[in-house]
Design a protein that fits this description.
Number of domains of chain A: 1
Largest interface: A-B, 76 and 94 residues
Order of helices and strands of chain B: HHHHHHHHHHHH
CATH class of chain A: Mainly Alpha
CATH architecture of one domain in chain B: Up-down Bundle
Helix content of chain A: over 70%
Largest sheet of chain B: none
CATH topology of one domain in chain B: Four Helix Bundle (Hemerythrin (Met), subunit A)
Order of helices and strands of chain A: HHH
Shape of chain B: globular
Number of strands of chain B: 0
CATH architecture of chain A: Orthogonal Bundle
Oligomer: heterodimer
Radius of gyration of chain B: 30 Å
Structural class of chain A: mainly alpha
CATH class of one domain in chain B: Mainly Alpha
Number of helices of chain A: 3
Helix content of chain B: over 70%
Number of strands of chain A: 0
Structural class of chain B: mainly alpha
Radius of gyration of chain A: 17 Å
Distance between the termini of chain A: 57 Å
């Protein structure tokens, strides 16, 4: 069969942390989006691992829904990014401070 | 039951090798996404990570999800990322060395290390899982993975499944609305102003003077009554 589930969970935790640090460190909006995708994938890996450990197909069903939501989120997010880049050329996350009080 | 425990207990060398190889791929891709200066390279590193995660899905017998991972994530989402990168022309290299906020980067690393340590600490103290097993049905055992997943999706989670279809429709409509270039935003946007900038200093007078000189030309071909209304 496969390895003990704790190995997978440790790997997922590491990938999630890398994604979170990347989201904090990077300035490019597109790369920040990719870091969000990394974090989503880490959570998906965790869900599949728990589905195997508990012998429950519900975890895999949840991963399916996460995939759909991630696809919708990417579509809308990239639409927003395109709209922002159309208004101002070369926008990083620091330039978007219109809502600052 | 005994056979299941025996199967679960044995992890062959092939399993370990598969896990180690795909874990290295996943981690290398994740680090590559974070540290690469070019967004195109970051997207390609993201593909590497997604393939590694798909291999780990296969290793845990989530065959349908592995296929969907490759098709949807690597095939659609990353391609969408690449489209946007190429479309906007933002594939120039970002200067990673310049840091506007001085303390942010060390603080981010510190926060990451703290979060990772916290996760491991929490995981060490207790059991990994609560022990409440099989709420929705068995994941292993006889039968194919696709069949089991489809059965649970179309019976127990049917409402959620339909809700995701509504969500997808909303996302498509939202993307179209966001990407549409309306009349007012096209006039206000700096990109449109930059294109029209060479003409703008002299644009006031020709606009008022041009219809007077241009009007006789359509008026000569069309009827005299319809030409002013067409110009308006």
């Amino acid at each position: 069969m496969s390895l003990d589930g704790s190995w997978y969970l440790c790997l997922a935790a590491a990938v999630f942390t890398i994604g979170a640090v990347g989201l904090l460190v990077r300035r490019n909006v597109l790369v920040m989006f990719m870091c969000v995708e990394l974090m989503l994938n880490a959570v998906n890996l965790t869900l599949v691992t728990f589905a195997r450990m508990l012998d429950d197909i519900g975890g895999q069903a949840l991963v399916f829904f996460v995939l759909v939501v991630a696809a919708a989120e990417v579509v809308v997010g990239l639409g927003i990014i395109v709209a922002i880049f159309r208004r101002r050329a070369g926008a990083t996350a620091d330039d978007l401070h219109l809502l600052r009080g | 039951m005994n056979t299941a425990i025996a199967i679960l207990a044995v992890a062959t060398k092939v399993d370990i090798a598969v896990f180690v190889a795909s874990a290295v791929i996943v981690l290398a891709g994740a680090i590559g996404v974070v540290v690469s200066r070019n967004p195109v390279h970051a997207a390609l590193f993201l593909v590497l990570t997604l393939f590694g995660v798909a291999v780990l899905f296969v290793a845990q017998e989530a065959h349908f999800l592995a296929a969907v991972q490759v098709i949807v994530y690597a095939g659609a989402i990353v391609v969408l990322f690449l489209f946007v990168i190429m479309l906007l022309g933002v594939d120039r290299q970002e200067n990673v060395m310049v840091e506007p906020l001085r303390a942010q980067r060390p603080l981010a690393f510190l926060l990451g290390v703290i979060a990772l340590g916290e996760i491991f600490l929490l995981a060490q103290g207790t059991h990994w899982a609560t022990g409440a097993s099989q709420v929705a049905g068995p994941a292993g055992g006889p039968g194919s993975n696709v069949e089991k997943l489809a059965r649970i999706l179309f019976t127990r989670y049917l409402l959620a499944f339909e809700a995701t279809s509504v969500l997808l429709v909303i996302a498509v409509v939202g993307a179209v609305v966001l990407a549409r270039r309306s009349e007012t935003t096209a006039a206000e946007s700096p990109a449109a102003a930059r294109v029209e900038n060479p003409l703008s200093p002299t644009s006031e007078e020709p606009l008022s003077a041009e219809p007077l000189s241009a009007e006789p030309l359509p008026a000569a071909s069309d009827e005299p009554h319809s030409a002013p209304s067409g110009a308006r």
